[in-house]
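Good day; I would like, with your permission, to put a structural problem before you. What I wish to show you is a protein chain and, alongside it, a tokenised description of its three-dimensional fold. Thank you for your consideration; the sequence and its tokens are set out here:
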Amino acid sequence: MASHIVGYPRMGPKRELKFALESFWDGKSSAEDLEKVATDLRVSIWKQMADAGIKYIPSNTFSYYDQVLDTTAMLGAVPDRYSWTGGEIGFSTYFSMARGNATVPAMEMTKWFDTNYHFIVPELGPNTKFSYSSHKAVNEYKEAKALGIDTVPALVGPVSYLLLSKPAKGVEKSFSLLSLLSSILPVYKEVIAELKAAGATWIQFDEPTLVLDLDSHQLAAFSAAYTELESALSGLNVLVETYFADIPAESYKTLTSLNSVTAYGFDLIRGAKTLDLVKSAGFPSGKYLFAGVVDGRNIWADDLAASLSTLESLEAIVGKDKLVVSTSCSLMHTAVDLVNETKLDSEIKSWLAFAAQKVVEVNALAKALAGQKDEAYFAANAAAQASRRSSPRVTNEEVQKAAAALKGSDHCRATNVSARLDAQQKKLNLPVLPTTTIGSFPQTVELRRVRREYKAKKITEEEYVSAIKEEISKVVKIQEELDIDVLVHGEPERNDMVEYFGEQLSGFAFTANGWVQSYGSRCVKPPIIYGDVSRPNPMTVFWSKLAQSMTSRPMKGMLTGPVTILNWSFVRNDQPRFETCYQIALAIKKEVEDLEAGGIQVIQIDEAALREGLPLRKAEHAFYLDWAVHSFRITNCGVQDTTQIHTHMCYSNFNDIIHSIINMDADVITIENSRSDEKLLSVFREGVVYGAGIGPGVYDIHSPRIPSTEEIADRINKMLAVLDTNILWVNPDCGLKTRKYTEVKPALTNMVSAAKLIRTQLASAK
């Protein structure tokens, strides 16, 4: 019985690639240095999988930034603004597309389906010229082969690539991206030919858009693409991989009708209904089924007995020699290796499996199906499953009762938003177009050292508080000098917006090295929610009150919302997600009330990940949005009218949930806008009326580029064309923690200058 891994984490067990990338970007190391780190990581991953007994090992799943950007490079689809003149695409052009440079902005970045991973959105149009411009897929296949490891090269499939793209600037929004299919397939044919010549016998096309709600025209594109590629693929075994949800019946029918495709990969964790489809609709004779029974998106040890039972039922349909045990999706969405967690609670650790352990689980299941079951391994797994089900640390009856009692109310604030904004303005006395930032300020090397040493008990609590107080004072002074209207304390005490809160909530566990890539070199360390959640003590009140005491201007209390904490954590899988979210909402509600009692007049409850958690199928949207919006309202339903509640969202497509955003009933929302080419504003041009305060971001913080005053003023004027003056705020797209002060200060200076310029123009026009 064979085994397969869809993909593997890229950053390395100790974030080796992250540090190599940042060193290269800072000019401290060479391209050769970066390439050596990357090569060492790739080789170690391939060898690890080979040693574990995996038969179908993927290659070309490694990336310096993003696999969709890699495909853009492969196709030579470089936007004109990067002045690329042809040839093999190098680091300069590649990273300019990803991050921007001193003269041009980066390409749009958005969430990869419903994950916290971000991809770089291709910009295409009728005049886009395609050419084979990155040989990465072939080079990595050859690299593995030279080690004696025959891999399955993985490519983003041609149809999903186009469906995930957007019309380039200046191209009509109605332009059919699928009309470019005939233009990109010749490049795919060249890649396939080179892979065949290099000795490849299998190829994997990732076509995750097959799990979406597709129309007949879109489904026809899959048939057309793989029919056109049929002769090029002759002699190869072709795997089309889908993941993240059930595959709809019509998509299943289309996929299983493709003559050029040998094997189909299905996510049987988030796509449990696909199992019923395979059983009821039948499975093509002679084809392979790559069964994704090991969860690639969470860190819980697989229930091996349950998975084995599923596999045995599939074996009866597909045949023993045509069933391949696989992960539900790429393992890049989980942490790397549990071996590195030497300080994690031993009981909780026994319940977990990171990427390295999931590789072992996949192979153990394959062996068991082949009649070589490791009885001791399966017994240990069963004992861990039983331990988790019966552990008293998982359940808190008081929390469960409080969460259950929430179902009787919609938790709306007592007064409408218009009346609340009037009451708040009388108290805050803010100017037209008030300026603010999103929360974090640059996380310097010194600041990280202080937090690290405090955690390691190398400095005292007094020394730590003194250092953080000094940093807050510096951030407050900078904002006052810049003349920003509503201030933040900069979050110097926080390494991560979710981790910080999880560390102070019950029901959470934390890792030392459980890093997961979010985008580029940015890694996050998701908390593990293993039990019922409550707040034993105040979490932010001390720092917020301290910061407010340093200024007469309003100081925002900064919290992470319940939906974002949920979506950016590894969540328990033994109860519905909404029940866990309601528990978190009650904990945040207590913090909001304590901040208000402490004199904080503006409280921001970030819901950056609310859109991210939206199910991929439209039929499931309403239920998710109902409990997600309800969870946010629970947090602040009891505050006074004069307390201003902000929220923040970023790097997703918000237009399709704008009415749910309105229904959150926040007083002010700050929302990413500039990097996505002001896509958000189109919803207001189309007639949606928004009555609360809103701050669409005026510049992209994920690029080192510093926007001019004129550029920001132009953005503000575009916003004023569709939004009322009295509700518009001026702010960056997102928090500033990843930037340097040499970038932040001039960018914020220009932002404030632009706001003042427009205020003057508005006043003179009266």
Observations:
- The mean pLDDT is 95.
